[in-house]
UniProtKB/TrEMBL annotation:
It is found in: Cytoplasm. Keywords: ATP-binding, Cytoplasm, Kinase, Lipid biosynthesis, Lipid metabolism, Magnesium, Metal-binding, Nucleotide-binding, Steroid biosynthesis, Steroid metabolism, Sterol biosynthesis, Sterol metabolism, Transferase. Its EC number is 2.7.1.36. Gene3D superfamilies: 3.30.230.10, GHMP kinase, C-terminal domain. It catalyses: (R)-mevalonate + ATP = (R)-5-phosphomevalonate + ADP + H(+). One of its GO terms (molecular function) is metal ion binding. Belongs to the GHMP kinase family. Mevalonate kinase subfamily. SUPFAM superfamilies: GHMP Kinase, C-terminal domain (SSF55060), Ribosomal protein S5 domain 2-like (SSF54211). Residues 125-210 form the GHMP kinase N-terminal domain. Its main location: cytoplasm. It comes from Amborella trichopoda. PANTHER family: MEVALONATE KINASE. This is Mevalonate kinase.
Length: 386
């Protein structure tokens, strides 16, 4: 049997970090994704669990009996009853991963590989298989590579275990119902927990369900954009780690509870207003230009509040200043501390201005692209004949 799953990355239009503290945030899927190819029963590889991270040219392999010796197996696999990874289990997973020498430059991968092992064993049990992962999402840049990795893995493993077994459409993709997507999402959240420490759940939700969502206290509301949105994404290429940044914000909130709670509350109000504007249709009293101006103002306010949380970075400030010279508004997206920055491209902006701003940003060593926003969520395709 061969299973393919693909899950999109995301941009957060408003509300990152505050969403971890129960406030509203707005996110949309983008057309960059992580793909997992899961091959069960490889000839000659019986008794092995293999993980190949193709883009990084890294391979991991464990004998199933070694994993069984290492992990308490009484309750596994769990597949339809989602459970979180205990701290004892986490320590064992880290020890299993540490048996492989991960290059120092990729050391952040250790938690991703631990999440793989946890999801694999919890959902599929001790089966022989090989997972080949590819992604065109920059890793650790704020575009939700961790969530799309966990969503694609969870979906493929739930299909392998037979827990999700819907009919296929004409392209061979499983037609996933709401409950099946919900199960994928819950497992992916447990994977995100291993990578992020304290995720809000917004990234795995938008990767699972796609399109545009508002997310608050674990509740997802779908948003139908009535306004065409075009965003330039600038990757500063400054590496950072979501777990550390989220923990830093929590520590600041611990030191200044009243002030930080006001910051979070302001962001909540900004997210609500932003989602109302995005959803308003063409028949609304305000013209598209007026709506875009409001969005720019809200993005600017959100960025100011993110600065007050301590998650900006010199590279992000450089993008803000550069785009401001062209009267364009930008804000960081994701956890900040480097990573990616969004710039709203208003509908009447001449294309030569976009070209000029991209040229200046790229001359600083940044990488710019325009991603399509709001495509579908996770897709799974099962081939029983292989
Ligand atoms: N394709 C992948 N293979 C293995 N691990 C991955 C992959 N994509 C993401 N990860 C894990 O997620 C981490 C990056 O997640 P994070 O810091 O949340 O940034 P982001 O989600 O914005 O890309 C990586 O260090 C790695 O542990
Ligand atoms: C900072 C946060 O709001 C988003 C993190 O996104 P990313 O991992 O940087 O793509 C954390 C979360 O919501 O779990
Ligand atoms: Mg992440």
């Amino acid at each position: 049997m061969e299973i393919r799953a693909r899950a999109p990355g995301k941009i957060i239009l408003c509300g990152e970090h505050a969403v971890v503290h129960g406030c509203a945030a707005v996110a949309a899927s983008i057309d960059l994704c992580t793909q997992v190819l899961l091959q069960s029963s490889q000839d000659g590889d019986v008794g092995l669990l293999q993980l190949e991270l193709k883009d990084l040219n890294l391979q991991f392999s464990w004998s199933i009996s070694r994993i069984q010796d290492f992990l308490p197996s009484e309750t596994l696999p769990l597949s339809s009853s989602v459970e979180c990874c205990s701290s004892d289990m986490m320590e064992r997973l880290i020890a299993l991963v540490a048996e492989h020498n991960i290059p120092e430059a990729n050391i952040g991968l250790a938690v991703g590989v631990s999440a793989f092992l946890w999801l694999y064993i919890s959902i599929a049990g001790f089966k022989t298989a090989k997972a080949i992962v590819t992604s065109n999402l920059p890793m650790g840049s704020g575009l939700g590579s961790s969530a799309s990795f966990c969503v694609a893995l969870s979906a493929s493993l739930l299909a392998l275990s037979g827990t999700i077994s819907s009919a296929s459409d004409q392209d061979g993709n499983l037609v996933l119902g709401e409950r099946e997507r919900e199960l994928v999402n819950r497992w992916a959240f447990e994977g995100e927990r291993i990578i992020h420490g304290r995720p809000s759940g917004i990234d795995n939700s938008v990767s699972t369900f796609g399109n545009m969502i508002m997310f608050k206290s674990g509740e997802l509301t779908r948003i139908k954009a009535g306004l065409p949105l075009k965003m330039l994404i600038t990757n500063t290429k400054v590496g950072r780690n979501t777990k550390a940044l989220v923990a830093g914000v929590a520590e600041r909130a611990g030191r200044h509870p009243e002030a930080m709670s006001s910051v979070f509350k302001a962001i909540d109000a900004i997210s609500m207003e932003l989602s109302t504007i995005i959803q308003s249709g063409a028949s609304d009293d305000l013209s598209i230009i007026e709506k875009e101006e409001k969005l720019q103002e809200l993005m600017e306010m959100n960025m100011g509040l993110l600065q007050s949380m301590g998650v900006s970075h010199a590279s992000i400030e450089m993008v803000l200043q550069t785009t401001l010279k062209y009267k364009l508004t930008s804000k960081l997206t994701g956890a900040g501390g480097g990573g990616c920055v969004l710039t709203l491209l208003p509908s009447l902006l001449p294309s030569n201005v976009v070209e000029k701003v991209i040229a200046v940003l790229e001359s600083h060593g940044f990488q710019c692209f325009i991603a399509a926003i709001g495509g579908g969520g996770v897709e799974v395709c099962v081939n029983h004949r292989l």
